[in-house]
Amino acid sequence: MPGMFRPLFAFWLLCLPVAALADTEKKPASSSVSAIVSTTLSTDGEHIRQLAFDGDPKTFFASEKNAGSKDRFTLLFDKPVAVQALTVTTGRPAGGDKLEAGIVEGSADGKKFEELAKFIGGEAHAKLEGRTILAIRIKPLADLKYPLIIREIAIASNPTVAIFKYPVEFIVDVRDAPEMKEWTDKAVRICERQYAMINEEQKSEGFTPRRVVRMKLSKGYRGVAMAGGGRITGAVKYFKDHPNDFGAMVHETVHIVQSYNGRGNPNPGWLVEGIADYVRFFKYEPGKLGPINPKRSHYDGSYRVTAAFLAYVTEKYDKQLVRKLNKMMREGKYKEEAFKTLTGKTVQELDKEWRATLGS
């Protein structure tokens, strides 16, 4: 649901207990182990926390304020891995703000941490010879006169720990309903986890997704949720009544990634919403789409109806259909003839064929 809002204030989801973050949320399918990152420190602008583990030494996490001895930066794996070696590099790429008085700790259970290495010249190295690790934690040993800058964490392990290919950080605002903080924290963790999958489903050459997304719950908004301009807003009443509908926020995160130019854009609304629900119901929570009425449903029915249509055409004609349509729409080049070009059949012919498979 395209739209925009201006947040009144925001606070950071950065200091949840490590053990609490190892939950049973849906995780992207991968042969490697996924991870989440948390910190007691607020982020400085676009230098988000996931940039400390993105495989790119030119990017880095930076804290908004100077770090202190009570601050922590934690990388928690979905399950324990056998770590052979670990390197943490701090300081800005151009020099300065290297962590000298600090240590890297490791934990096998996410609760009890032990020192693995000290920082020397801004770097910490540990040879662990297959030691079982569930979490690593970076800790200053003194109050610093500069921000904490983590340029890169490098881990050699079996299985491997997947880097953040599409780094993102959600800034949350629940001033309208502080009692919804726990729900919003979980929604943010889910959307951050699904961000890589969402981007893979909508990737196109030369496109770089947003790294900062703002999420707000509003008592004044009467719909379900809407997104636009890097912002997501949700209705307090709806999510109080439907606390398990995290898929709605995944849907809105798809809109954030779509990044279609709204001015003079020929993209039809039914397809914009259909793609968002396709990603939601066929990639994030398959099996929850529900029945489709063949007598009332057509390809341009929007939302889950169009999602079901796209799933049928994708499976039968072109596994890359949604990615190709998304690319056209992102570039402002979509026309109805795209379906004929991609499948050899008009969208109306595909619609008739699809509806015949739905039964009576």
User: Overall mean pLDDT score?
Assistant: 91
Secondary-structure element string: EHEEEEEEEEHEEEHHHHHHH
Would you count the extended β strands for me?
12
* Strand percentage: 25-35%
Can you offer a commentary on this structure?
The protein contains nine helices and twelve strands. It is of the alpha+beta class. It has two domains: 31-158, Jelly Rolls (Sandwich), CATH 2.60.120.260; 169-356, Neutral Protease Domain 2 (Neutral Protease, domain 2). Strands 2, 3, 4, 5, 6, 7 and 8 form a seven-stranded antiparallel beta sheet that branches. α2 crosses α4 and α4 (247-258) crosses α5 (269-284). The chain is elongated and about 70 Å long. The relative contact order is 0.12.
Please sum up the structure shown.
By secondary structure, the protein is an alpha+beta fold.
Q: Which key terms come to mind for this protein?
A:
single chain, 360 residues, alpha+beta, Jelly Rolls, Neutral Protease, domain 2, 2 domains, seven-stranded antiparallel β-sheet, five-stranded mixed β-sheet, 12 strands, 28% helix, disordered N terminus
